[in-house]
Every structure is written in C-alpha cells, then in structure tokens.
Amino acid sequence: MPSDRMASFEAFGCDPAELSSPAPEARRSSGPVTGPEERAPSYWLPGLGAAAVLAAIAASAAWVYGVPGRGAASAFSLLFGAAFGILMQRGRFCFYCMFRDLIERRDPRPFYSLLAALAVGSVCYVVIFSAFLPTPTPGRLPPDAHIGPVSWALPAAGIAFGLGMTLSGACISGHLYRLGEGYTRAPFALAGAVIGFGAGFFSWRTLYLATISKAPVPWLPHALGYSGALAVQLAAIGLIALLLTRYLPGARAVPQAGPQSAAAATAPAAGNEPLSSDCSADPAQLRALAAVLSTLPPESPSPAPGPSPQPSPAPSASPASGVPLAELWQRIFVQRWSPGITGAAVGVLGALAYFRVAPLGVTSQLGSIARTWLTDAGLLAGRLNGLDAFRGCVTMVVHTISDNGLFISALTAASFAMAVVGRRFKLSRLTVKGAVSALGGGILMGWGSMIALGCTVGTLLSGIMAFSLSGWVFFGSVLAGVWAGLKLGLHRLV
Amino acid sequence: MRRFTVAARAARVPVLALALALALALASTALAAVESDKVVSTEWLAAHLDDPKVRVIEVSVVPGVYERGHIPGAVNFVWHTDLVETVVRDVVSPERFQELAQAAGIDNDTTVVLYGDNNNWFAAWGAWIFNLYGHEDVRILDGGRAKWEAEGRELSVRPPSYPRGNFEVKTINSHLRVRLADVLDVVTHNKDVAILDIRSPAEYEGRIFAPEGFQELAIRAGHIPGAVNVPWSQAVNPDGTFKSKEELRQLYASVGIDGSKPIIVYCRIGERSSHTWFVLSQILGYEVAQYDGSWTEWGNTVGVPIVNLAGTVWGAQ
C-alpha cells in the first residue's frame, strides 16, 4: 500500500527516495486495482476541494487588490505564494531533500532542480536588473535585491541553518509547504523559527559591531558588469551540474537504493532503459535532463534553460493517439514534476516576484512577528543598529499581516490543495522527540536566517539569482551544515 | 404620521438645496485644479510626454517604486543620494547637481516636471533644489504618482536615455534657503519674518519628538519661538492635488501668513516643508525660504530658544 511506503519515508522527514523509487508508479499502479467505478469520486472530491482552495486564494487576491493601502503588491503576493506552494509541493522543491539526497544517497537529481532555478533565475534577473539599474555603477545596487554583507557571521548563520534543517526535517520554506501536506512537525519548527529570530535579534548588536558593520556587500556586476557576471555565474552553475553528472543513475553502475527494487516489482518497465520515450515519466525525463546537462561545455552552460525544450509532463503524456484523462491527471497532480521543469519555473517565478513585488523570501513575516512581540514587550529596542539599512528579508514592527505573510499563507494553502488532490495529505505521526527536535531545529534556522538576513529562499535562492556573493557563501555553508548534521545523525532524532 | 409627512416635505427643500450645493462644490473641486503655471495636471503631462522640451523627473522615497513602473520617459532622481550630500549633511552640491541634470538631458530651457510618491514631498524637495540652482521652468505634477496611478495611466519599466543636456548652475538663489544662524537672528532680534512649522500639531506642541517610526530625532521637543503651525497636509485635497489658490490663501492667512512679510518654513528634516515652500512661493507667489536644517538641527542645538507647550524633557526617562 502506498500509505505504508509513505509512512516509512516520513521517518526521514521528507521523501528523498521518491525520484529513485517511482513511488508515484506504485500509487498509480494501485489506481486500476480499485476500479474505475470507485475511482471517479475519489478524483472529483479532492479535485473540487483543491479547486476551492485555489479559488479562495484567487478571490482573496481580487479582494485585497481593492483594499486601500494594499493593492497590486498584496494581490501578487498571494498569487506568487500560491504558485510557489504548487511548485514546491508538485516538484518537491525542498532544499533539505535536495541536499540530503546529494550528500547521503549521492543522488544529485533533485539538486538539479535548484541549479535550474538558479540558472534560469539569473538570466531573468539580468533582464530586470538592466532596466532597474542600467549601469551597475559601484556604490549603487538595484532596488531591494537580496545582496547582503559577507562576514564570518554569514557562514556561521548558514551552518546553524543547515544543522537546523537536518534536525527539524526541512528548511523554513520546506516546513511551510509540508505543513500543507500534514507534516505535524512543521508547526513546531516554525514556532522554533520565531523563537530563533528572537535570539537572532538579541545577538545582532554584538555581531553587527564585531563584524557585519565592517563587512563588504559584494555584487558580481560591480566587478564584471551584467554580461560578465552572468557568464561567470552560469559557468559556475554549469560546472557544478557537470561535476555532478557522474553521480547520476545510469552514469554509475551502482544499483538504486532499496525502494527501487520495490518499484521494479510494481513497475518493471520503469527500469533502466535509457531515454525510451514510452518509459515511465520521471526516470526518463531525468535521464533526458542528465543528457542535456552532460553534453554542454561548462563555459556555455545554459543547462538550466536546457530542460525547457523538454516536453512538460502533461504534453509528454499525451501523444497524438490520445491518452486517457486519468493518465494526464496522474502526471499533473499525482506524480512528482521533473526537477528541471520545476526548477526552471521557480527561476521564472523568482524573477517575476522580484519584478512585481519583492524577491522571493519566506522569513520576513516570521521575523516580524518575533520583532513585534519583543518590541511590544519592551525587550527589544525599536532600532536595531544597521539592520534596517541592509537588504534581505526585512523585519518590521507590524501589527498587520504583511505582504510576506500573505505570500507564505498562500504557499501553505496551495500546497495543501495540491497535497489533497495528489493524495499526499496525511497527518504524520508525531512523537515528543520529533516535536522537540523540530522546535530545536527551528530555533537554529530562525537564528541563522535572522543573522543571514534570509533563509534558503531569501538569501540562497534570491541572493544568488541577484548575483550576490552572500548567496553563494550561504549556499556553501548551509550545505556544510546539512552535511555535518547528517554525520552527527541529527536527522534520526524523530 | 401627518406631522412626519409635513416635516419630510419641509425637509425636502433644504435637502435639495444641500444636494445642489454639494454637487456644485464637487464640480468646483473637480474644476478647481490649482491655477498656477508651476503645477501641471495629469492630462497636461500625458499630452506632453513626447515633447522634447519637457523632462519628467521622478523623486520617490520608497526604493523600487520608480523601477517597477514610472511615467514613460521619466528619469529617476534618488533623494537619498542624488539630491543630498551623502557624507556631510547638506543639499547636493552645485557641481553634482549640474552633472545629474545634464545626464538627465536637461537644458537650461527645459520644462522640468517633477512627481513622486508620498504626496510629492520629495518631488517638492527636487523642485526646491532646481530653483535653488537657478533653473527657470520647474513644475510639479498635481496629485503626484498616486493620482497618475489612480487614473490608470500608462507606466513604463524601461529606463530612458537622453543625449546630454546643457544645464548649467549659473546662479545660486541663496535667498531660498536659510541656515540656523539666519533663523536665530530672526528669533533673537524679533525680525519681521513669519516662521511656519508645517509638522503635525503633536510635534509642534512638543508632545512627541518625531512621527512614529522615524529615527532621526532631536534631543528637545517643541518649536521655534514665534512659529505658527499649519501641517503641510492641509494644503492638499484628499486625492493629493493642491487646493485652489483661494483656499490656500485663506488657509495661511488664518495664521497670519499672507505674503506681506518674508516667510521661513521648516519641518523635521526639510522634506515635508519643501511641499509647503512650493505652495507658498510657487503657487501663491510669496517670498519664502526653507530652513532645511529644521527641527533635527534646531532641537539638537545647544542654547537656542525653544517653545515647548507640552513640557516634555527627554524622549525616555
């Protein structure tokens, strides 16, 4: 039963083996067993439920658009949040899973999703930057792009964040979308993040005076211009992509991890045939992705746009002869979306969000909650030296829900809708240990993202797309933190 | 019953009259766009976007506002860095301003139209600087950015590019600006100069040191002795457009400011008072100088006289 399989995955905090083991296949194969007559209602009910949730988000956006003092930024925040939630849930765009699969299983495939997002996002950001700040003159930065200071506090924050991810089973954005899947540790981790933010505010003054105030704010285009920065960044992303191809399944003789054999039992055709078009969706698309990546030199690595010529899951499932609606449904709403397509879409979404509202980020509202509570309680000064002058996921003393709050609410709601329709919604079993470790991990992540002025979304994703060095430093240190966390066995504290 | 009907009938006449008066008032406010050649309407600007002798400048305070959509062809002046000095507290130097204006393609005979967010506060600062450095034709878009947006007019995200202009700072109109010593001179020698504080009544009376959320504070609260208080916002209609000339004249006359003597305006840092400077000098034609040091200079200066109606001493105990 799929539910048994899922239960075993939940011990990991996420579903890292899903790409290796076509769990969707297993689920799909369970479809026909139930018989079409039983299947119809189970399609429509969750489908209608999800449609209702998405319609509610759309209606809220339409309503908030007309609210004085709100307008388009708030409406777009809801819509972008929903889109991000859908992408995260359908494509499992979970930083922890990507990092963990890479480190523990030596499986880089989910990681390509991130590389695709960074590459596509960089290209789109350059287009926007060249309009926002036509000449990248030193001393000037494009408005509110996430380009932060690089001091030793940044890797410290990244490592703490990575450890927190491992301990709590996801990063902050991961918890937000997995909350929509019924992950019961998520509320503890998010509460922990608010506490961690509070701790961050208290340590800010010391760190600011010790190092952050003296730190440079390096921005690649200042040194290389836009085209140079884009070339260097795409080369770096391409090089990483190229180096990782040796770990791709098919590139190595090592058989897949355990679940693969289970998958082989349920769906033998989904085995190792390279690039056969009739092969089941996920492995074939991944092999195609790997093929695209490995045939490009690192100098001109448009590997990320690479996946775009690939047919999206839905059309590929519909040859001219016609494919049953059920198959289409499976491909769109049940099976995991291809990492390349998900990543490319995240890159485009990141640029659109920057263009219309602000760079993608998920911690601004959480941090603002902590800051407001502490300020109202008289524990925190109204002004935190230097903090409000930096760019990143800004925190404010606010007593209303900010646009960022709308963004993350829509993210979780849309993820919930997709989880329901994909039958992935399931309240995970909660243990005291799991709750405490999630809270502890959340505290580490909250502290880390306060000091780093953002999390894996705000500082890593939006930061690298914006060509900041801070994004890359945070990337490396979070990866190191997750690696250390896995070595320490923090992920087993559930 | 009967009495009610009679009452209703009796009420009808005044109700009708009231409705008529209201309609007239509405019509007159709609038509009563301030009559001044220093103020342009959104319609006028929309019709002159392609005029090479008109240059539109946006001065907004919120970062990213211009970039995410501006009036087509408008050039962005960043208040925080372009229109002030960034190390010394001062207005932008004439050299830097000349360079800025030339890069924006401004000639000496260009019609400069400024607009911005926050009711044109910072656009008005820009207008003051343009006047300070002797540019001839400086105007403000009535209603600013908010009105242009509210009317659903065209916005662009493309950065404009113009051939270099020949604008030169030929004269510095230093009579448009006063410094601490000048104001102190007026106060201590009881000179015949009107001082206008355009901050909120709470700031004027000394109940608060600065509006909530603003960090740049003064050690003492209150106002400059002799100053009268007309908050800047009273000069605009709810949609951000300037009130009619007559309304403005009455508004300031009610506190004794009628143009019969020179006027000094100030606020907290000099940006809101630019708005009132524009109203009084450019619309009403009075002789007005701006004290841009404003309360953050006066309230921090040792030994200058202060009137504090509220009696606050320190911001915190």
Report on this model:
The complex is a heterodimer of chains A (494) and B (317). By secondary structure, chain A is an all-alpha fold. Chain A has helices at residues 2-10, 23-34, 36-65, 72-91, 95-104, 109-132, 153-168, 172-179, 186-210, 220-244, 258-266, 281-294, 313-316, 325-334, 339-356, 364-376, 403-421, 432-451, 456-465, 469-488. The longest helix of chain A has 30 residues, at 36-65. The two termini of chain A are 23 Å apart. The model of chain A is unreliable at 1-17, 20-40, 253-282 and 292-320 (pLDDT under 50). Chain B is of the alpha/beta class and 317 residues long. Chain B folds into two domains: 39-173, Oxidized Rhodanese, domain 1 (3-Layer(aba) Sandwich); 177-298, Oxidized Rhodanese, domain 1 (3-Layer(aba) Sandwich), CATH 3.40.250. In chain B, the strands form two sheets. Chain B has a five-stranded parallel beta sheet. The chains are: A mainly alpha (494), B alpha/beta (317). Chains A and B meet through loops of A and loops of B.
How would you summarize this macromolecular structure in one to three sentences?
Helix content of chain A is 64%, strand content 0%. Chain A has helices at residues 2-10, 23-34, 36-65, 72-91, 95-104, 109-132, 153-168, 172-179, 186-210, 220-244, 258-266, 281-294, 313-316, 325-334, 339-356, 364-376, 403-421, 432-451, 456-465, 469-488. Chain B has 317 residues and is an alpha/beta fold.
